[in-house]
Write a structure and sequence with these properties.
This protein is of the alpha/beta class. Helices cover 41% and strands 23% of the residues. The strands form two sheets. Strands 3, 4, 5, 6, 7, 8, 9, 10, 11 and 12 form a ten-stranded mixed sheet that branches. It has a two-stranded antiparallel sheet with strand order 1-2. The protein starts with a helix and ends in a 5-residue tail after the last strand.
């Protein structure tokens, strides 16, 4: 078994077949097939079930996914560690992130990291729930995970760094009933039309609480993609309730933003495995901890770091 075989194996899984994996790896498909045949012979198990012209990962293949990712990541860490002796050069930091934390604090983190380490790439993978973030980190698909949740997360086996708490705000087109930076209460939204996300998110629960007040407030549109919410609000379709991470972007686009009282808090945290971090990922995590301390001093959160051993 060698690292090249594991790389080929993961590519077949991630691209959904031999032909697409071969194209992505820039290798001939017969070479890829032979490498997999040799790996299966070495292991004594079938990694794929051939179904028509496609393949399905076998149970044994599923069990090999996480160890393979960790082996390749550890090999990358060896290379990165050698390069780090003379400074952090090259490599990639893989971060799973939910939409709102992906606006902020991710923007600040990537901006600062790029200034300090311009030769390192930050690669982000979309996740839409805390569980999706945790799964991507546990599986080794991403080294770090940035999530927002209604209550602080306490996942077994992962380190958790609390970054900040984000209150929710109202975002609306200018020229309407909402005034910029003027605090409102849910009752002040009587008769307004609201833009909402799907049921199950903290954002949606806040909107549902507002519409349940019997004030004539109603949901005018429901969207899956959070990136659609701000443009819809700017066109005057309705008013949006978003975490405060959207405030700076919304105002730059010309929207008005008003705090809500009382409101829930989105708890933003960075999660990671207690080991198997490359030097670049450790550096990114240290930068996140520094940002958490600064924001705690500003009153937006407490930089508590909970390790897997605290569970």
């Amino acid at each position: 078994m060698d690292a090249r075989q594991l790389e080929y194996f993961l590519a077949i899984v991630e691209h959904g077949g031999f032909s697409k994996a071969a194209a992505a790896l820039h290798v001939a498909q017969p070479s890829l097939s032979q490498a997999m045949a040799n790996l299966e012979a070495d292991l004594g198990v079938a990694l794929f079930h051939r179904v028509g012209r496609g393949v399905v990962v076998s149970e044994a293949g599923q069990e090999l996914l996480e160890p393979s990712r960790r082996v390749l990541r550890d090999l990358a860490a060896v290379r990165d560690t050698a390069a780090a002796l003379a400074g952090l050069h090259g490599g990639t930091v893989e971060v799973a992130t939910m939409p709102s934390p992906g606006i902020e604090p991710l923007t600040t983190l990537v901006h600062r990291f790029a200034e300090l380490h311009p030769s390192v790439t930050v690669s982000t993978q979309a996740a839409f729930t805390p569980d999706e973030v945790l799964s991507l980190v546990r599986s080794g698909a991403c080294e770090l995970g940035l999530l927002g949740s209604a209550t602080p997360v306490q996942p077994a086996g992962l380190d958790v760094l609390h970054v900040e708490d984000q209150p929710f705000v109202v975002v609306a087109a200018p020229g309407g009933a909402i005034e910029d930076d003027v605090t409102i209460r849910p009752g002040d939204l009587a008769g307004q039309k609201l833009i909402a996300s799907r049921t199950g998110s903290l954002m949606r629960s806040i909107v549902d609480d507002i519409t349940a007040g019997g004030t004539g407030t109603e949901i005018v549109t429901v969207v899956d993609h959070r990136t659609s919410i701000l443009p819809l609000a700017l066109t005057g379709v309705g008013i949006a309730v978003l975490p405060s991470s959207w405030t700076r972007l919304a105002r730059r686009c010309g929207a008005v933003v008003a705090p809500i009282e009382p409101t829930a808090q989105l708890h933003v945290a960075m999660v990671s495995l207690p080991a198997h971090l490359t030097p670049a990922a450790r550096t990114f995590l240290a930068l996140t901890e520094s940002l958490a301390r600064r924001r705690a001093a500003a009153g937006t959160g407490s930089p508590h770091r909970r390790t897997a051993h605290d569970a």
